[in-house]
Amino acid sequence: MKEIERKFLVRKEHFTPTGSQIIMTQGYLSVDPDRVVRVRREGDQAWITIKGRMEGITRPEFEYPISPEDAEALLRLTLLPPVEKIRHRITVEDTLWEVDEFLGANAGLLLAEVELENEDTPFSRPAWLGEEVTHDRRYYNSQLAQHPYTQWHD
User: I need a surface site. Which of 13, 77, 105, 108 has the fewest CB within 10 A?
Assistant: First the structure.
């Protein structure tokens, strides 16, 4: 499996949440760039995900469902405090956007992600889409767990 994803800041003044939304909690068992291992809880569903090193905007990704009980036990074993967010799923002109409104130590950050079939797949660009941050590692969730947004000083 592979993940091809682009990330953008969201222009808050132009964004009004629509579509579905759910609270997510995710923690990291490994944050090594060659093998990120994440546990995610989303309502009554949960997954464990292994991601390999990024090449361009593509990286290997393996994701498996696990029980919510296993997710809770694994979240207690994570290296760092979990990342919490509200995920808004919004379709704009046949493009599914996932907009993450971060909570806790990352409060104030609003990121949009789009997953693509290929690196050059065209996609809609809603009015609320801001600067692309795909190649800025600070915006990876695994990095936000280590260096929360509210602690940035630049």
Answer: 13
CB 90 within 8 A of CB 99: yes
Q: What is the CATH number of the domain that holds 51?
A: 2.40.320.10
pTM: 0.92
Contacts of 117 (CB under 8 A, 6+ apart): 4
Query: What's the residue count for the chain?
Result: 154
Closest to 30 (Cα-Cα) out of 58, 7, 52, 47: 52
Q: Which residues pair with 49 in a beta bridge?
A: 38, 63
Is 28 an annotated catalytic residue?
Answer: yes
SS3 category, 36: strand
Domain that holds residue 79: 2-151
How many domains is the chain partitioned into structurally? 1
Which ranges of the chain does DSSP label H, i.e. alpha helix?
68-75, 141-146
Q: What is d(CA 143, CA 26) in angstroms, rounded to the nearest whole number?
A: 12
